[in-house]
From TrEMBL:
The keyword Nucleotide-binding applies. This is ABC transporter related. PROSITE patterns: ABC_TM1F, ABC_TRANSPORTER_1, ABC_TRANSPORTER_2. InterPro entries: AAA+_ATPase (IPR003593), ABC1_TM_dom (IPR011527), ABC1_TM_sf (IPR036640), ABC_transporter-like_ATP-bd (IPR003439), ABC_transporter-like_CS (IPR017871), P-loop_NTPase (IPR027417), Type_1_exporter (IPR039421). PANTHER family: ATP-BINDING CASSETTE SUB-FAMILY B MEMBER 10, MITOCHONDRIAL, ATP-DEPENDENT PERMEASE MDL1, MITOCHONDRIAL. The chain crosses the membrane at residues 50-70, 128-147, 153-175, 233-256, 276-294. It is a multi-pass membrane protein. Residues 330-565 form the ABC transporter domain. It comes from Desulfofarcimen acetoxidans (strain ATCC 49208 / DSM 771 / KCTC 5769 / VKM B-1644 / 5575) (Desulfotomaculum acetoxidans). Residues 14-296 form the ABC transmembrane type-1 domain. Gene3D superfamilies: ABC transporter type 1, transmembrane domain, P-loop containing nucleotide triphosphate hydrolases.
Length: 573
């Protein structure tokens, strides 16, 4: 929470607290004036004193009202600005994360932290500025003012206030871990809900709706059970406080009544002390209302700090050279990588080199490490051993922005964004003209269907490209990637949704267009890669063969098995 408080601007906080103090002083002064009015005005029948004091009381009440309004306004501004800053920083930090950090925290948890957790912290700060300071001031101020009126009557408060305060602290400490559990369950609920919505078609196709619903229901019940438990504990506070304060009021009336009887106390004094008991009670009520926000807000602050303190494992070295060599070539030199928590390397001792104008193809069974290799090229993961060199320079010695400028990646999963075709294409080259975009679409065999869209380049792309078929999405992604002027073009299984004819047609046009760059193609189909200058055959993360199609047919058993399996399916022409 300290880190959250450090983010607040000093002046508005001081202003909010100052107005709060004015409000409390005004509120606390009223019972003393009431006692004075009863003892010296009403009992003695002094009308002018009653008018005079009445006017002062009205002015003080109005002052307290104005101060409360200003405090509320400033507190809301402070807390909303804090929330805005936190969301911005979480977004900025998370956008620097490498895949390792995303794997560690999880996308769903990041979303919960950026929404729910920020709101909890925001609420706590607002409550803190409005009530959390007010409550102890009412308590301490009320006891102090009551003591000034009657030391004997206020001994009742001196005994009960610490008891109730200790009960509140104890209950809050007990609730703290339960709030942590609640936040984690919300993370899981979000994860299952998100997965369920994204994969709704698969779930239906496999008839797994019931199992998925049960998985969700289990966490949902857990969340409800824990929330009910927390509320039952926190809910104890209010009745306990009410009971104690009622007993206190009875004690004050009894002791006060006896003192008035024996002529040792005036009636106004007892009325004043009872008014202070109401204010002390209000202080406790405020604490009760906000006490649940404290552990919840603190848990959320901890979760937010985890994201803000997380330094991306992949960052620019201080010695980052800003330039790459002029001669275009890509080299992997004995590269190995092991995913976090995995028992063995996903890829092991991978070495190859490809020059400008040449195509390297990577083939292998699922899970053999193809995507892992291509993710190393833009440094989405850093090598565990060995090195990756672009144009002769170790990519870790280059600023990431320079590297990303020179690498164009078409990921396995087509990523299109809500907007227009033009906006999506311009991600590849922000200043691309319509002619350039049409030329790229032509190369990717996408011009024809884009032409038929209402609005052409202004045609709408729905979220995730939902209004296009799998093959159309892949073609749009290819067009976007080749618009970018890069040294390396990486196609990670980007032709899989295309029919054989379109696949061959696009690859032929691409060969001419990308003649000044290195092309890396990952594919499952032999027909997609058989014309490549060099084919890398992967098996369980290791190289099982390197060569051209004809060479591998002779030398690689794994390659022959892949060909045989595809002949059986009739996939190889
Ligand atoms: N984020 C990850 N965390 C842990 N292990 C992973 C992760 N991503 C991949 N792996 C593991 O690394 C190995 C290689 O995976 P990779 O995705 O590179 O294979 P692939 O050849 O591209 O597979 P596919 O053809 O199915 O896409 C697999 O055993 C996989 O289970």
């Amino acid at each position: 929470m300290k880190e959250m408080i450090k983010r607040l601007s000093l002046f508005p906080v001081i202003a909010a607290i100052a107005f709060l103090l004015i409000q409390v002083i005004c509120d606390l002064y009223i019972p003393t004036l009431t006692a004075d009015m009863v003892n010296n005005g009403i009992v003695k029948g002094d009308t002018s004193y009653i008018w005079q004091l009445g006017l002062i009381m009205i002015l003080i009440s109005l002052g307290g009202f104005a101060a409360a309004l200003l405090n509320t306004n400033i507190s809301a501004r402070i807390s909303y600005k804090l929330g805005c800053g936190l969301r911005k920083d979480i977004y900025r930090n998370a956008s620097q994360f490498s895949n390792d950090e995303f794997d560690k925290i999880g996308t769903s948890s990041l979303i919960t932290r950026n929404t729910n957790d920020v709101t909890q912290v925001q609420n706590l700060i607002e409550m803190f500025l409005k009530f959390l300071i007010l409550a102890p001031l009412y308590l301490i101020g009320g006891v102090f003012m009551a003591y000034r009126l009657s030391p004997s009557l206020s001994t009742v408060f001196i005994i009960i206030v610490p008891i109730v305060a200790l009960a509140a602290i104890g209950i809050s400490m007990y609730a703290n871990p339960l709030y942590e559990k609640i936040q984690k369950t919300i993370d899981r609920l979000n994860l299952i809900f998100r997965e369920g919505l994204n994969g709704v078609k698969v779930i239906r196709a496999f008839g797994k709706e019931k199992q998925e619903f049960e998985r969700y229901e289990q966490d949902n019940n857990e969340y409800t059970k824990t929330s009910i438990r927390v509320n039952a504990i926190i809910g104890l506070l209010m009745p306990i406080m009410s009971l104690i304060m009622s007993l206190a009021t009875i004690a004050i009336t009894w002791i006060g009544g006896k003192s008035i009887d024996s002529g040792n106390m005036e009636i106004g004094t007892m009325m004043g002390v009872i008014s202070y008991s109401v204010q002390i009670m209000t202080g406790f009520m405020l604490i009760t209302n906000v006490i649940s926000s404290i552990p919840r807000g603190m848990t959320s602050a901890k979760r937010i700090n985890e994201v803000l303190d997380m330094t991306p494992s992949i960052c620019d070295a201080k010695s980052s050279k800003q330039t790459l060599g002029q001669e275009v070539f890509l080299t992997f030199d004995k590269v190995s990588y092991c995913y976090q928590g995995a028992e063995k390397n996903a890829i092991q001792d991978i070495s190859f080199s490809v020059r400008k104008g040449k195509t390297l193809a990577i083939i292998g069974s699922t899970g053999s490490g193809k995507s892992t290799i291509v993710n190393m090229i833009p440094r989405f993961y850093d090598v565990g051993g060995g090195k990756v060199l672009l144009n002769g320079t170790d990519i870790r010695d280059v600023a990431q922005s320079t590297l990303h400028d020179r690498v164009s990646l078409i990921p396995q999963k087509s990523a299109l964004f809500f907007g227009t075709i033009r906006e999506n294409m311009q991600l590849g080259k922000p200043a691309a003209t319509d002619e350039e975009i049409w030329a790229a679409l032509e190369t990717a065999d996408a011009a024809e269907f884009v032409n038929k869209l209402d609005g052409g380049l202004d045609g709408v792309v729905e979220k995730g490209g939902g209004n296009f078929s799998g093959g159309q999405k892949q073609r749009l992604c290819i067009a976007r990637a080749i618009l970018k002027n890069a040294d390396v073009y990486v196609f990670d299984d980007s032709f899989s949704a295309l029919d054989f004819k379109t696949d061959a047609k696009i690859r032929m046009v691409l060969k001419g267009r990308l003649k000044n760059a290195v092309t890396v193609i990952v594919a499952q189909r032999i027909s997609t890669i058989m014309e490549a200058d060099k084919i890398l055959v992967l098996n369980e993360g290791k190289i099982a063969g390197v060569g051209t199609h004809d060479e591998l047919k002779q030398s690689s058993e794994v390659y022959r098995e892949i060909i045989a399996s595809q002949f059986e399916k009739g996939e190889v022409a």
